[in-house]
Amino acid sequence: MSTIAIHDRNYPWPGSAQTALDPICALLEVEERRVLALQSVLTGVEEHILIHFVRMYLFRFAVPAVEIEHGGLEPAHVPAIQARLWACFVGRGLDDLIDRDSRFFGPAASATLFAVYCGLLLPTLGADAERFLRGVSTSVDECRTEGRPPEFERLTDDVCRRVDYFLAPTAGEWPDRLGLLRSFLGVTLGGCDLDDAFEDGCGRSATYLSRSLRAELADDEGKVLLGGRLWHWWRKTAVMLATEADRVNVELTRAGAPFAAGVVAQEAARLRSQTE
Fold it and tell me: HSE on the CB side for 119, CA within 13 Å?
């Protein structure tokens, strides 16, 4: 296992996937140029933000998803990785249009991302296009009260409901790998939801974790106060996620997805470092 540096982030790269590294890095360059070409019509969006999203989506989600599906990475998988990256940008635009809480993209920029990347992606999906569009149209749940401490299974269900479009190819062609990808997303996106749990509240941006936070900690006025109870809730949830990440790491490694396992291990280490 070697280490590759993508901007300011290091990723453990498995020796078994060495032949795929150069084609994937070439894809990175292509997609960085593509998104920068859109900057003139994405009003107010800075270049470094666009580059950040390309790199993050490629190496934290697109590459791991395809590796999980195929049980490895080869140069022939690059078109599937590209399509998964485009799906991430479709989701970025969709999420911002629904939540309306983005600090990076206004409604016009979000609509542009959604339209451009949908136009690129849909012709590549074939029989999966209908499943993808059903995922895109998934409705937003109303705020619900969760009366018990956060559970990984329910967190994963909530995360995967919100990114059902990303799971469409797996559900259609690799159903036996769907559980692995769901667990991967439960850890990685669950960590993001934990970071945002206080901010997300119970409005359009509400998640399973933000609802659980308020169900446990809100006072009679509906306020969540800073203090020991909030820290205790955050810490026990972070520990739960890190523990689940250890389990998912082992499962991914056994399934021939060491890069995805490494991403999960990094998330577990990040969570533990913040609970000490």
Answer: 6
Q: Which amino acid is at 175?
A: P
Q: Which residues of 243-263 are buried (b: 16+ CB within 10 A; e: fewer)?
A: ebbeebbebbbebbbbbbbbb
Adjacent-strand bridge partners of 189: none
Domain assignments of the chain as residue spans, ordered by start: 17-137, 142-276
Summarised one tens digit per residue, pLDDT across range 115-167 is: 999 889 888 877 666 666 665 655 445 445 456 788 999 999 989 988 887 88
> Are residues 191 and 117 in contact, defined by beta-carbon separation less than 8 angstroms?
no
State which amino acid sits at residue 250. V
Q: Please name which of 147, 207, 177 lies closest in space to residue 71, comparing C-alpha atoms.
A: 177
99 by DSSP, 3-state: which?
A: helix
What would the pLDDT profile of 47-90 be if each residue is shown by its tens digit? Answer: 999 999 999 999 999 999 999 999 999 999 999 999 999 999 99
87-98 tens-digit pLDDT: 999 988 887 777
Helices assigned H by DSSP within the chain: 18-37, 47-57, 63-70, 78-99, 107-125, 129-136, 152-162, 164-173, 178-195, 197-200, 208-217, 228-254, 258-273
Look at the pTM and tell me if it is higher than 0.85: yes
The one-letter code for the residue type at 212 is S
